[in-house]
């Protein structure tokens, strides 16, 4: 549970960083960024896998670069739902999604994945048995 809250705060901080770095992204306060991070999380869990599957041929043809467009779409969708969080235009959404991804990736490197259940550590014991 602690890992989930930490990741939520990391994405919140990444959204605030994006609002400072990208001119077309505005966040009115911390709670708007917090709700935007929660909305992005929900969209990424439920809608993003479906969109990735539907756009797989285009994603393969562009060597995965179309994923930036999908991330920008998720960011625009979140901004349309959350008051106090606004993304102006396509390129602001693309660069904002890039900043959020990079900042989130860097900060997530400092979070221990063992708390969130992300790593299963198996060691070989007694011949062919793993445990």
From TrEMBL:
Family matches, as Pfam families: Phage_holin_4_2 (PF04020)
InterPro entries in the record: Phage_holin_4_2 (IPR007165)
Swiss-Prot/TrEMBL keywords: Membrane, Transmembrane, Transmembrane helix
Membrane-spanning ranges: 5-22, 28-47, 54-78, 90-111
Protein name per the record: Phage holin family protein
Species of the source: Syntrophobacter fumaroxidans (strain DSM 10017 / MPOB)
Keyword field contains Membrane: yes
Keyword Transmembrane helix recorded: yes
């Amino acid at each position: 549970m602690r890992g989930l809250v930490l990741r939520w705060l990391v994405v919140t901080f990444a959204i605030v960083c994006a609002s400072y770095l990208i001119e077309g992204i505005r966040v009115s306060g911390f709670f708007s960024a917090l709700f935007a991070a929660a909305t992005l999380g929900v969209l990424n869990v439920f809608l993003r896998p479906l969109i990735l599957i539907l756009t797989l041929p285009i994603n393969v043809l562009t060597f995965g670069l179309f994923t930036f467009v999908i991330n920008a779409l998720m960011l625009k969708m979140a901004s349309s739902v959350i008051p106090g969080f606004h993304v102006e235009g396509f390129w602001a959404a693309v660069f904002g999604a890039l900043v959020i991804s990079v900042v989130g990736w860097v900060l997530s490197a400092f979070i221990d994945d063992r708390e969130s259940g992300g790593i299963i550590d198996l060691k070989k014991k007694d011949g062919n048995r793993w445990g």
